[in-house]
Amino acid sequence: MENMSFILFGATGDLARRKIFPALFNLYRNQKLPKAFSIIGIGKEELSNKQFQELVIDSLYEYSRHSVNDKAQKAEFVKSITYISLDITKETSYQKLLTLVKKVEREHNLQENRIFYLSVSPKLFNVITTNIKKSNLSNTSGWKRVIIEKPFGNDLKTAQQLNDIVQNAFQEDEIFRIDHYLGKPMVKNLLTFVSANPMLQPLWNKHMIANIQITANEEVGVGSRASYYEQAGAVRDMFQNHMLQLIMMTAVTMLDERNAIKLRAEKVQLMETIRVENQHDVVRGQYTKAPCIKGYKDELGVDSSSNIETFFAASLFIENPLWEGVPFFVRTGKRLNKKETKIVIEFKNVLNNHEKKTNSKPNLLTIHINPDYGISLQLNSKNPITGELETITMNFSSNDKDIPEAYEYLLADAIQGDLSYFTHWDEVELAWKSVQPIIENFHTNKIPLNFYQAGSNGPKEADDLVNKHGYKWW
Ligand code: BG6
After folding, report:
1. Which of 114, 143, 363, 471 has the smallest CB count inside 10 Å?
2. Quick one: pLDDT at residue 354?
3. Dihedral sign from CA coordinates of 368, 229, 443, 284
4. Is the CB of 215 under 6 A from ligand 1?
5. What is residue 283's predicted lDDT score, i.e. its pLDDT?
6. For the structural domain made of 4-149, what CATH number should be given?
7. SS3 (DSSP) at 274
8. Would you state the torsion angle of the CA atoms of residues 379, 384, 385, 390, taken in this order, to the nearest 10 degrees?
9. Which Gene3D superfamilies match (predicted)?
10. How far apart are CA 454 and CA 292, in angstroms?
11. In this structure, which residue's CA is closest to atom 8 in ligand 1?
12. For residues 57 and 21, what is the distance between their CA atoms, to the nearest angstrom?
């Protein structure tokens, strides 16, 4: 593995503390970082290196999955971190940063391989990438990469503008756009799961599959993120990125999972053929209060007349020969009855299509993404006592605490230069194109806002969406 400098903008922020440093530390523990590396943290706060390193150690104790008996390793790890306080809106700051980066590279005997991680508000992406280029920070004799957090734009136009800015400083194959759902262990397993099981391959198409249901429900509300969420809503926050990616990852058929170019090209082809039916096949909802739980409009920072959706459901079709006619139902929302991210594949129940109906239930393959990591298969079987047909479920699940977090996988990939599980601009642009009409219809109230009680299953209109196709949510 080539040595590198990891230059983190937003080093004192929440994401750095909760996800980025713990992930880097776990990679370090598992020898997945290069032998020589340095981390440069950039933040607003005036802190000495030592003070910052202590903050990082605290975050490792709080959030790293290795939290006991590794005191010495933590101390060793943070020695590679240098902190600099900078006003990143000022051009002169980038000269200071360049001087520091070069100094650290000399001291650690590093080649000029640089990863810039933008863990900051999207408002700052422009000024940072422009100045990285201007200051010559990106003019390296080694390689350079940039990792960008979501949201990538707020609509099609702002996403295009942002992309122009980023592509002015970095080539497409140097841009690692994070969608943390693509780093989730079970999502990374999807391609392998189908390609490594010959039994499944002939089933993965419109002839055998009746519908696919993707659920990403959350128990939490909007929390302290109202100012962001009021601009986003569930469509931008979850559907444009995570949910569409889950659809693509379920529908791709390539067997060689580590080919970033092929995988991303296949996802682009799928995105091109995806059809969201606006008026009738989209449901939006907002949570209302329940005993002891605030309604969305009462949350701190939310406008009391807010029309923002905290729930979104839709049915979509992929219009290609493999998937045409198979509904992909998606639903996601906040303040629902439980946290659950899963993909349910409902197979056609040909037995019940015959004249003589049986009691057989459809075969279901459920892929549990979060909080469980598991796979289950529902089959029909004869009860040995009653002789009746009943459903049985074969289950696999693991809650091994050593399963890496999404960020760990994604950072390892970015350090290795593997783009497979990062989104290509073409995917992002097409995703915005498909949600743009929905956003506009929400804006003009062409799609009504439904309400659901906090802690419930979501608006009943979401059930109608699936029922009208002759199915129910699993
Ligand atoms: C983020 C959204 O991208 O994903 C949040 O901005 C959401 O609103 C989160 O809560 C859900 O992620 P996970 O990994 O908890 O399912």
Report:
1. 143
2. 59
3. positive
4. no
5. 96
6. 3.40.50.720
7. strand
8. 10
9. Dihydrodipicolinate Reductase, domain 2, NAD(P)-binding Rossmann-like Domain
10. 10
11. 237
12. 9
Q: ipTM exceeding 0.90?
A: yes
Q: Is 218 in the pocket of ligand 1 (CB under 6 A)?
A: yes
**For ligand 1, is residue 149 a contact (CB within 6 Å)?**
no
Rounded average pLDDT per 10-residue block, the chain, 474 residues: 95 95 95 95 96 96 78 93 97 97 95 96 92 96 95 93 94 97 95 91 95 98 92 96 97 75 92 83 96 95 96 96 96 97 95 68 96 96 93 94 93 96 96 93 92 97 94 96
Three-state DSSP class for residue 399: coil
**In angstroms, what CA-CA distances link 315 with 15, 171, 198?**
32, 35, 29
Structural domain boundaries in the chain: 4-149, 182-409+424-467
What's the burial of 222, exposed, middle or buried (CB within 10 Å: 0-12/13-18/19+)? buried
Q: What is the pLDDT of residues 97-137, one digit of tens each?
A: 999 999 999 999 999 999 999 999 888 999 999 999 999 99
- Would you state the pLDDT for residue 276? 83
DSSP count for the chain of H helices, then E strands:
14, 16
What's the 216 CA to ligand 1 centre distance in angstroms?
9
What is the C-alpha separation between 244 and 440, in angstroms, rounded? 18
The reply to whether ligand 1 has any atom less than 6 angstroms from the CB of 93 is no
Report strand pairing: 81-85 vs 389-398. unpaired
Rounded Cα distance between 322 and 469, Å, is 19
Q: Which residues are catalytic?
A: 242
Q: What is the pLDDT of residues 253-293, one digit of tens each?
A: 876 656 888 899 999 999 999 998 667 789 999 999 999 99
Residue nearest to atom 14 of ligand 1 (CA): 181
Helix axes 185-195, 406-416, angle to 10 degrees: 70
Query: From CA 152, how far away is CA 177, in angstroms rounded?
Result: 8
Long-range contacts of 27-34 (CB under 8 A, 24+ apart): 27/408, 27/411, 27/412, 27/415, 28/73, 28/77, 29/66, 29/70, 29/73, 29/77, 32/412, 32/415, 33/1, 33/415, 34/1, 34/2, 34/3, 34/4, 34/415
What is the SS3 assignment for 132? helix
User: Does domain 182-409+424-467 match CATH 3.30.360.10?
Assistant: yes
Its pTM stands at 0.94
- Crossing angle for the helix pair 71-78 and 49-63, nearest 10 degrees? 140
Cα three-residue angle 431-435-436, rounded to 5 degrees: 110
d(CA 467, CA 449): 19
**Atom from ligand 1 closest to the CA of residue 220:** 10
* 45 DSSP 8-state letter: S
